[in-house]
Amino acid sequence: MSTIRAFRCEDMFHFNNVNLDPLTENYGLAFYLQYMAHWPEYFQVIESPSGKIMGYIMGKAEGDSSKDQWHGHVTALSVEPESRRLGIAAKLMSSLENISEKKEAFFVDLFVRVSNHVAVDMYKKLGYIVYRTVLDYYSGDPDENAYDMRKALSRDRDKKSVIPLKDPVRPEDIE
């Protein structure tokens, strides 16, 4: 039985098994610490009974809280290769969605590589839609576009946040 808990500083010394994956975005130490300081409730790990980190999720709340753009955002979600297809990513996503509900967010969004078909399919199964395509989103690969995927939460009764946009946007056009 795996357990979800808050990410701790010392976890940065024990999550290489999760981060060493070509599809996982890696960040500098300061970036992880910034998330721990600003959005600690959104930064979680899932660990095995032996204490091994099997995956993590890092997110935040952002947007204008007085308008319908207030939302939870998934910055990173990663599961170690040997723990994939066990529902771990779904558990972490559900936890982040619940936190966003408590913060009265309208939706949760994330960016995923268009070429990452496994992740795109998983997010669709979790109820996310492709809201828009972001051209040349990934800085290391100028030909790699991203999908901005969204899932409406209960505060968005009319589901306005998940009406797909027809035209692609550029990274600088993202609010």
Automatic annotation (TrEMBL):
User: Keyword annotations for this protein?
Assistant: Acyltransferase, Cytoplasm, Nucleus, Transferase
A GO MF label: protein N-terminal-methionine acetyltransferase activity
Domain named N-acetyltransferase: residues = 2-154
Q: What is its main location?
A: cytoplasm
Cellular location of this protein?
A: Cytoplasm; Nucleus
Q: Which Enzyme Commission number(s) are listed?
A: 2.3.1.254
Task: Tell me which InterPro entries the record gives.
Answer: Acyl_CoA_acyltransferase, GNAT_dom, NatB_acetyltransferase_subunit
**Which domain of life does this protein belong to?**
Eukaryota
The UniProt entry's coiled-coil ranges are none
Give yes or no: UniProt keyword Oxidoreductase. Answer: no
Q: Provide an example Pfam family for this protein.
A: Acetyltransf_1
Output a single Gene Ontology CC term carried by this record: NatB complex
Question: What is catalysed by this protein?
Answer: N-terminal L-methionyl-L-glutaminyl-[protein] + acetyl-CoA = N-terminal N(alpha)-acetyl-L-methionyl-L-glutaminyl-[protein] + CoA + H(+); N-terminal L-methionyl-L-asparaginyl-[protein] + acetyl-CoA = N-terminal N(alpha)-acetyl-L-methionyl-L-asparaginyl-[protein] + CoA + H(+); N-terminal L-methionyl-L-aspartyl-[protein] + acetyl-CoA = N-terminal N(alpha)-acetyl-L-methionyl-L-aspartyl-[protein] + CoA + H(+); N-terminal L-methionyl-L-glutamyl-[protein] + acetyl-CoA = N-terminal N(alpha)-acetyl-L-methionyl-L-glutamyl-[protein] + CoA + H(+)
Q: What does this protein do?
A: Catalytic subunit of the NatB complex which catalyzes acetylation of the N-terminal methionine residues of peptides beginning with Met-Asp, Met-Glu, Met-Asn and Met-Gln. Proteins with cell cycle functions are overrepresented in the pool of NatB substrates. Required for maintaining the structure and function of actomyosin fibers and for proper cellular migration.
SUBUNIT field: Component of the N-terminal acetyltransferase B (NatB) complex which is composed of NAA20 and NAA25.
Family note: Belongs to the acetyltransferase family. ARD1 subfamily.
Protein known as: N-alpha-acetyltransferase 20
Provide the species name: Actinia tenebrosa (Australian red waratah sea anemone)
